[in-house]
Design brief:
Length: 260
């Protein structure tokens, strides 16, 4: 089991976590009544023919503590986002366990936001989805809009979200999620969107969350964001945890390994 350090309060414990995706490879007979019957009969007896197992996370163990900001690095497909989804309770573990103190939020509110509604309506919807009251949303509304910066070039907050660029939409999502103090907040590449000014605001907000005893996980391919924001880094490769330690030590080892 992941080690617990004396005197510090754990917020997330991953204990030998394995996550397996099952991908339908489109074998013959797909969609037929015979194929459907064979799936039912095989239930609980292993995977049906034509289903490929993808072992995305392999035996990962770690303990995260209050006040930590932890970076997740690794090449594409290394299991970083999959691990965050498991911590958020969105993916089941094949084996092993994830224990969390409080409710983890995976960059808050993507599923709740609606493209046909205005940014203004989505701020309200996103806030409600995170458990904020209407009074709290009203109180923080202007700060959320200002933080996102989407009104800097016109009144975009009153337009439907489908008119936003992907960067604007991502900034608004981050701004809504960051408006609440989280026990555990997981951010997947949000700081890669937007200009340097927005990144600086985001990094400052992450430091605030840490000071309020929250735990922040950040997935990013931008090593400077990781260095500026995180005190500790987990390096995943092919679903395995290769290294877990102080930011500079782990990021330098990763850069050395991937520089050639």
């Amino acid at each position: 089991m992941a080690e617990i350090t004396q005197g510090r309060v754990p917020t997330v414990i991953a204990d030998e976590v394995h996550i397996v995706y099952r991908v339908n490879t489109g074998s013959s007979g797909k969609g037929s009544a015979t194929a459907a019957l064979s799936k039912i009969l095989r239930r609980g007896k292993g995977d049906a023919p034509g289903v490929r197992r993808v072992h995305a996370v392999r035996g990962v163990s770690f303990t995260a503590y209050r006040g930590e900001a932890i970076g997740l690095i690794g090449s594409n497909g290394s299991g970083k986002s999959t691990l965050l989804r498991a911590i958020a309770g969105l993916l089941p573990c094949e084996s092993g366990k994830v224990y969390t103190d409080g409710q983890p939020s995976l960059l808050g509110v993507n599923a709740a936001l609606m493209n046909d509604l205005t940014g203004e309506r989505n701020v309200v919807l996103g806030g409600l989805a995170m458990g904020m009251t209407r009074e709290q949303i009203k109180e923080r509304y202007q700060d959320i809009v200002d933080f996102s910066g989407i009104n800097e070039k016109g009144d975009f907050i009153s337009l439907p979200m489908r008119t936003y660029s992907s960067g604007m939409a991502a900034r608004l999502r981050f701004s809504i999620a960051a408006a609440k103090d989280h026990d555990v907040l997981m951010i997947d590449e949000a700081l890669a969107t937007g200009d340097r000014k927005f990144q600086v605001r985001s990094e400052a907000r992450i430091r605030e969350l840490r000071e309020k005893a929250g735990t922040v996980f950040l997935v990013s391919h931008n090593n400077n964001s990781i260095r500026d924001t995180c005190s500790r880094v987990l390096w995943l490769e092919k679903g395995e945890l290769l290294m877990d330690g102080p930011t500079e030590e782990v990021v330098s080892a990763y850069e050395k390994a991937t520089s050639h």
